Amino acid sequence: MYAKLVFRNAKQSVKDYLVYIVTMTICVTLFYAFLSISSSYYSPDIGSEYDFTLLSDGMKIAICMITLLLLFLIRFVNHYMLRRKQKEFAVQSIMGMEQKTIGRIFFAETLIMGMFSILIGIFCGVFCSQFITAMLLTAYGKPYEISWTLFPDTVLLTVVFFVASFFVVGIFNTRTIQKTKIIDMLSAEKENEPELKKSRFIPVVVILFLMFTLWELFSGIQNVRFYYDSRFVFPVKIMYWGNILLPVVTLGWAALWMLKKKKIAFQKLIDGLLICSVLHVFLAASVPALTNQYYLPLHGGILNQYLVFVLIDLLFFICALIYLASSLIVAWKVKSPEHRYKGENLFFFGQIISKLNTTSKTMTLICITLVLAIFMFIAAPILTGWASGYLDMRSMYDVQVYSRYNNVYEEENLPQDSYEIITEFLTEHKIDTVYDCTFNLYLSEKDDFHNRQKYDFPIVAISLSDYNTIREMLGYEQISLEEDEFTTQWKAIATEEERDNFLKEHTSIMTDAGELTLSGQSYYEDPIGETAYNSYTNVLYVLPDNICEKLLPVIKNRYITTTENISYENARKLEKLFTEKYPEQAETGAIYGVRFSTLQINSSIANNFILQTAMIYGAVVLMVICLTVLSLQQLLDAGQYKYRFSVLRKLGVEEKHIGKLILQQLSVWFGLPIITAIIVAAVVIAYFIQTISAEISAYIGFGALMLQIGATMGILAILLICYFISTWIIFRRSVNP
Amino acid sequence: MNTILKLEHIQKYYGNEGNITKAIKDISFSVEAGEFLGIMGASGSGKTTLLNCISTIDTVSAGHIFLEGTDITEINPKSLARFRRENLGFVFQDFNLLDTLTISENIALALAINKVPAGSVEPRILDIAGKLNISDILNKYPYQVSGGQKQRCACARAIINNPKLLLADEPTGALDSHSSQMLLSTIQSINEQLRATILMVTHDAFTASYASRILFLKDGEIFMELRKGNDSRSDFFDKILNVLTMIGGGQSHVC
């Protein structure tokens, strides 16, 4: 009998469950599609020179971590269903059905719906995983073909994961149903969530914020004590003192409120703190900007600390703004009777204020999550672009042997070997070389050998003939130098300003073999790899051969290009042989390393892919969670809204106006958190881009970045519009008679 | 006296061809300006259907309804809402107040919807609140006041636009006897002092006894008409009970 009831209920309430099914299907689709890559049956044709296992393990962990977030969504949707069905439960229990049975029936219903969603979800997932395979093969630079396959292990994992989560959530639901009183079930439809004003959420946030302000104050004082100089320019002075004064003002305002608690409303306190937090965001964000501009002596730790401060101020800004949103609307309403008594505005204000009062906590969380999602969406292409751009700079040679003298203190311990082991291995495996260049890097002045200060590390020099061989290897034109002339070679990361300043100050240099003047062609920028420079420097001198013979060689490198790619296996073997003979930290203090383009490309493509996929997956999951919760929040109250709109109709409001009211209400509901999130995310991203602007211009290029950001924003906008329109349609349908 | 509302051979059918329910068979009557008309009848006699037809919420199957000479059965559906808010006022059994707005805002909403200039909204609310004795609860929310106060607020909202006709559907249905009495006195004073025309549907004899004329419906037709004339209210009440006994719906009141 009960089984019949379950099936009939499930069949009849498919419409009720639509939101549930759609949400669950999206979850399953995302889960299956991303996880399918890590399946052991998955073998895309990425070529023998690459290995795929590294990627699979990383993917599996990343996806499972992110999917934990989905549990919240499953729980929320279940809560929504539970509230929707309260009245039905009440009738059933009044008729005499045990609440335990009701709980079980509900559980069985949701399980059937869940299974249904898993089926559709896996089907959609197979489709979606094609996109991801396409992404992967493009990442490895291979052509792409569609293949329809179902991976048994992924299917099993998906089913197990979701069924397990259904059971966990189901147990909670059954308990909730058992504990609810019948009278509460009956009145559930007209009930609102408890008001936030009475909850402790905001007071706790304020206390935490004040504690952080105290920390900001201390670090501000410390910065002035240790790093302040009265010769600084005016903006820098403002930054130093502002970072002390503003926290003082913030704390002072809070103290004043404590003293005059009865006279100043709690809202006024929040008003003040909100203004302070906005000002402080700008002050804290100016720290790295000014540090870059004026070369202030603030180190990375302090900059990271200020990044934390910016984040905390922004978080508080979100909490306070949404908390105050309803009182701002009230204040505006009170001040302008023209707006208040214009058409249906009174009704509109009433709707928004009552909803905001009861759900600001949810709204705040949604807003913060949205910021995170937007940030991940935009940071993913930046980070992967950076990494793959860097890869192009690093993996220019098939084999690249390099050394460092950073820990060598005796001249006889300097690396001088010519790495014959490589030659032996290549001949043994019949790998032909096209170019093979072993060369020294010299110190222009011997006295610099003992200079190991990070900020003043000596620039090394290369002989003209070696430099020309390298250029030939990479297909660049040869260069020439007059006698007693030198020129420079620059890393891509160096800025134009840095280069120009350097060249202005170094029109001539002193070497152990005499003075040299800067050549007419004073610099070259064609990338030649990162290992041709000394540590911590972005520039390399190119000196005539006869000069170099008289200088102290400190670094020995060897670059080789081969006729065909070295396979993944051989590269691993040779790497092992090499590190056995030349350990990374030799007893002499010299540092040796070998890089193979095969291995570099493989690991960095794999890492990049994991990073990008995980970030995009995470961002999509967060985005879907936020938007679903936002739209469910509105639909949850459809019962109340139906009544309210029917009153309006009886008062003689046209359908057109009612449609407009619904649109307005939904726009505010979606607009407030999304616009706040976009503003905050813009600040965070601007800060992020500003701190790594050198890397972006070196490895990605701002044009390409803007294009990527534009495309991402486009996708977000489409997702948002889809959610908005479907909520709007369901909402209209549920308030229409 | 001029006729404000005139119904001519109203019919209302529900259902499809094979299975027709006649909610209203054939009803004709007219209401004079300033009259307080009661409509009584047992459940299923068609009184709510009749009210819905007059209030343009429902459409008639046949016949015509004229409000001050305008045939409201011929009005374009798009301008019905406008017609409703300009000409009719409603009081419902379950108040129909918005719990997101204060009492004063609930009344103001009716004015705002009718595009009354913002400056004159508040004086008008204060004026009507004084007349209906709800001045001291204007800033409270509906859930903070009693049922009687809510219904008086609903009355204030209904008459603030000076409608040609005030329609009341079981206004005392959700109130206790004391609150009912107070509300009915209020409605009566609205009728007498503000010269409002009122059409009230009820099944309760006591409530009906405040009207000046009563139409009794039975099975979708007018069964009888009763005028108060110069009778006292208690005499009128007795007459109503007698009619109800005749119809067969009100024995309990007599026994």
UniProtKB/TrEMBL annotation, chain A:
Membrane-crossing segments per the record: 17-38, 58-77, 105-134, 154-172, 201-218, 238-257, 269-287, 307-332, 365-387, 609-632, 666-689, 709-731
Question: One GO CC annotation, please?
Answer: plasma membrane
Pfam hit, one: FtsX
Keywords in UniProt for this one?
Cell membrane, Membrane, Transmembrane, Transmembrane helix
Protein location = Cell membrane
Q: What is its main location?
A: membrane
* Membrane topology, from the record: Multi-pass membrane protein
Domain ABC3 transporter permease C-terminal, residue spans: 61-177
- Record-given protein name: Efflux ABC transporter, permease protein
From TrEMBL, chain B:
Please list the residue ranges annotated as the ABC transporter domain. 5-244
Query: Which Enzyme Commission number(s) are on file for it?
Result: 3.6.3.-
**The protein's name:** ABC transporter ATP-binding protein
The UniProt similarity line reads: Belongs to the ABC transporter superfamily.
Where does the source fall among the domains of life?
Bacteria
Q: Name one GO cellular component term.
A: membrane protein complex
Spell out the InterPro entries in the cross-references: AAA+_ATPase, ABC_transporter-like_ATP-bd, MacB-like_ATP-bd, P-loop_NTPase
The top EC class, named as a word, is hydrolase
Q: Does the keyword rRNA processing apply?
A: no
The regions listed as transmembrane in this protein's record are: none
Swiss-Prot/TrEMBL keywords:
ATP-binding, Hydrolase, Nucleotide-binding, Transport
Q: Which GO terms describe its molecular function?
A: ATP binding; ATP hydrolysis activity; transmembrane transporter activity
Gene of this entry: macB_7
